[in-house]
Structures are given as structure tokens and as C-alpha cells.
Amino acid sequence: MMKFCPECGHKLEANVKFCPECGYRLSDLQKQDNSSLKKKIKFESSEDLIKHFLKNAHENADISIAPEITEKKLVSAAETIGNGADTMKVTGLIDTTVFHSGKEGILFLGDKVYLRPAFGNSVCIEYDSIRNVKYEEKESRDANNKVSIEKILDVHKTDGDLLRFSSKDYGFNFPLKLLSEILSGILSDVDVIETTDQFLLLKDMGMECILLYLKIVTNYLYEDDGQIDNEEYKELIGLMGRLNVSTELADALRTYRIGEIKVPTEDLITDIRNYIPRGSVPTIFQSLLNDILSISKNNPEEWKNDEIFVRYQRLFGVSDSQVDFFVRRLLQDRRIIEEKIDDNTIKKAMSELAAIGTAAGVSLAALAVTGGVSTGIWGGLFTISMASTGGMALGLAAIGGLGYGAYRGVKYFSGTADSEKYAIRSTMLQQKIKELQKSENYLIEDINWTTTKIAELMEKKDQILANHEQLLKYIQMAKSLDAGSRLIFEEEKKSQINILLSHLPEKLDFNKFEELVKKTQYQIPFREYVYACYQSDGNGEYILQNIDDEEKLEKLDQILGTVGYYDLSKSTVAKTNVLMKKGISGLKGLISGQNE
């Protein structure tokens, strides 16, 4: 008989202990039918209950749930509402401020809650100190028969004290009813009251945890088709690079990777849980599935046809909608690189994708668990697209000082408008190159280890026949490593070329270039080289040709930089000279944006 979670309606797989969508415990109910599942079910921890209630709250409130709390608001709330509470332990926040500053409201930790009204000090309630909770709404009428309602939350403590919270003091819209439901649930419907870290990266959890994580990924790569191919190897050592895996850990993983005996994945999952704070388990498991998807899938949208992948999905408790989100993220990231997508399009895609992820219950923090702004094949979309760059900072300063209309003119003058469009893409490519360079270190270590093993066996001439199979194995490994190295170097070269293409203008401003180049003694060779790369389309436009030679593109970029094509002041003077020749009317039209 099909089973469904009685709380959220999520379809349940066989033998799961907790609903992967809402966290309800199901282990005691597996043998019951759907009608009997409607009985009250306990949560595994106070943190699970808090997140569940906040996620499903119907109140019109600004609610944030860890780890998806913006850093600025989190720090502010921990300092003001939480009286300096540990930001790593914050489970949820209800912000009641008008301007969403996080300085008033309710701050939840796994073992306590803080309340702060608009006017007044914070109050802390430890869950273990609560005897019972009572919420009521009192109705009264004044002399004019006007009805008023007072919301009251009474918290009776085990030491006999009474804490009373009233809407008269906290404001009518302060979510006292929701707080009462959460506190009542903690008293009766959780197995354990605990507070754990909510924002840890994998590399913060210790070497053993990282090794278990990588062993799980390795297990899948072998279970998938019985081998780790060259592309998978390249991505695996890329993941190791993002985690800054030590030489000792890399040696341990190599031993496991080439060994005949593999630990069952179910046992590895049980072991890794011992190293992960309970609050971070869903995020780590989502990250695991995301990394497996990114490393192994050429056609990720067909993941449902992979029985091994689906089994891992169930082991991690990740829903179909969450996997679909990771697939969309992966395809989007690949598209950014391959199609030269500009920043505005990326930001729009990021916003849409974030909304899809939130609706699916994805922890967006899972995209950064492995310690870098890059996850999977391209990764880092959400982290990188939020990052500031020099170009963006310049843009904000210019807009503030000159006004938007003037800034549009300055961008046109300077020739920076084209390169600014691809700042996010360029940052992603630069991060990818760093990742590939780290990968090369692990590749070299693997090559050295393999060649040493081959040399050791070859020295034992009297045992060549006995060691024949082992020797063939190491020789095959050496061939695979050689093929893997070619993939890494080719991808690094491709990324370097794409960075140059992101910086170079697609269309050369002929008049501006001519104004600039005539001031250098190298004007003849510079013209020859630039016009060999930019060719006229017959309509007065000079278009960059399809060039895949890194050195040629780098030289072109250097020439444009040397003449001052990218320099704000030089470009402005050059453009002004051009426009003066065309007449002052052209300048006015340019600044107003009419001639763009």
C-alpha cells in the first residue's frame, strides 16, 4: 500500500524513519495504513520541530530558517535579539522590524528562544525551564462599545515563575500564537532538545568526515558502471581541490579508490552521521547528491533512468523536486560558460532558480558545502553572482556621483560596458582555473605513486610473472592518469580562452581605437594585428572573429590595453574627440541614452 506523510502529504519510500520533506518521524508507523498515520508523530529534535513550524507558518511575518538566513540579518539578530548569541547555532528568525533589519522579533536556537519588542529588552526562555504554555485572546469593549483584543502568552516555568507576553507590550502583530505552538510542541512532541551548528562547511567537520564523504562519492562512481572514467576522475580530484584535501587524506582516498574492498554505502552513511551536527545533516546529504550528479552526469536530466542514482537519492532522503532543482542548476551553470551569458541574464536566472529551490525545500547552502564558490562542474552560481567585483563597485560609485544618465555616457566613453556585462562569468571561469590548478597537484601525486609502484614491480625481475596482473593494473592506471591530465589541461586552456573572450569587446569601436592607436609609435603593427582579429561586416561594424588560440587572444587584449582602450580617462578623451568631430548634438544624444 502506498504511504504518505500525514503532515505534508509527501510520498514515502519504504523503510524511511523520517519524512524527507518535513522531518516527521515515521519509523514507528511503517506497518500501519494511511488512516492510522494521522495520529500524532514526534520530531527527532527541537530543531526539526522549529524549522517545521516556521516553514509552515501562516502568519504574515518575515521568517527565515537556517541555513538560509542572510548574513547581515543573522549577525544583527544574534547581537540584538539574542544578546550576542552564537550565529552558528541559530535555527530560525522571525523579524518584526519595519525595515527588515533583524533587530526585533524572535530568535530561535535549538535549546532556547529570545524575544525582543520594538521598545524594551530581550527576554530569553530556555526550553528545559518550561513547565507549560498557555495562549489566549481576551476580548474587551470600551465605553463606546468598541471591541479590542489582547493576545496573551503565559509561560509557566519549572521554578514557579511566570513569564507573561502581551500584545500590549509587543504589538498586535507580534507572532505570540506561533511562538506558543512551537513551545507547546517542544514540550510534547520532540525526542530531544538540542542545539547544533547550522552553517558548517564540510571542511570544518574534520578529516574523517571528509574522507567518508569522498568514499561515498567514490562508491557511486564504481557502482554506476564499475569504473571511474577519465572525466569522472577529473571531476573527483576537482572536488578534492575544493575541499583542500591534505596529502595524507589524498593517500587514504587513493588506497580506497584502487582497492578491491569497498565499504557498503549504507555503512558509510551511518558513520558520517556521527560527524555531522544534526542541524546540518539535510544540507550535507543534499550536497552529496549534488556533487554526485555534477561529477557523473553528462545528461543529468535523465537521472531517473539511473537505478543506482535513485537508490542513493533515497538513502540521502532527497526528494525528486530537490534533485530536479540541482539538475536545473547544473544545466544553467554549464550554459553560462558555453553561451557567454551576461550578468543581467545570470542574475535573473539565479533569482528564478532560487525561488524554485526554496519551493522544493532545497538548502541553497548545499551549493557551498564543499568549501568553495564552485560546486559541481561549474557551480557557484549563487555565491559568485552575489559577490562584488571592481567593475560593480566602480559602477555604484559612478552612479552615485554622476547620476544614471551621465553614468551611461561614461560607460560608453570608456569602453567598459562590454566587459562589465560578463563579470560574473569571468569570475566563475577564474575560480574554475584555480580549481583545475589544485587538481593538477593531486594528479601529479597519483602519477608519482603509480610510476613508483610500476618501478618497484619491474625491479623484482624474478617475480614478473607472479606480479603480471598487478603490473598490468598499474600500467592501465598510468594510461588513465595520462588521459585525465589531458582533460585537465584542455579545460584549463579553454577556461583561459573564455576569460579573454569575456574581456575583449565583441565589436570594436573603430573610431575610438583609431583615436587611441595613432598616439603610439607602434600604430602600424598594432593596426595590422587588431584588424586581423576584428574584421568589417560591410556595415561599418568590426566583429571579433572566432579565435581559439590563447596566445593570439592574449596579445590582442594586451594591445587594446596598451593603447588605452580599457582605460577610463584615455577612452573618455578619445570618444570626446570622435564626438566633437561629429558635432555636439551627438554627445547630447549619447548622454541621454537616445543614441544607444
Note down, in words, how this protein is organized.
It is a single chain. With 596 residues, this protein is an alpha+beta fold. It has 4 domains: 1-41, no CATH class; 47-192, no CATH class; 202-381; 508-534 and 551-592, no CATH class. The chain contains 23 helices and 15 strands. It has helices spanning 46-55, 71-80, 167-170, 176-188, 207-225, 230-242, 247-258, 265-273, 281-296, 307-316, 320-338, 343-359, 381-386, 390-402, 404-414, 417-420, 423-459, 468-503, 510-517, 523-533, 550-563, 568-582, 584-592; strands at 3-4, 11-12, 43-45, 62-65, 90-95, 105-109, 112-116, 123-126, 130-141, 147-157, 162-166, 190-192, 507-508, 534-536, 542-544. A 5-stranded antiparallel beta sheet has the order 4-5-6-7-8, sandwiched between helices. Strand 6 (105-109) and strand 7 (112-116) form a beta hairpin. The longest helix is centred in the last third of the chain and has 37 residues, at 423-459. It is flat, with a radius of gyration of 30 Å. The termini are far apart.
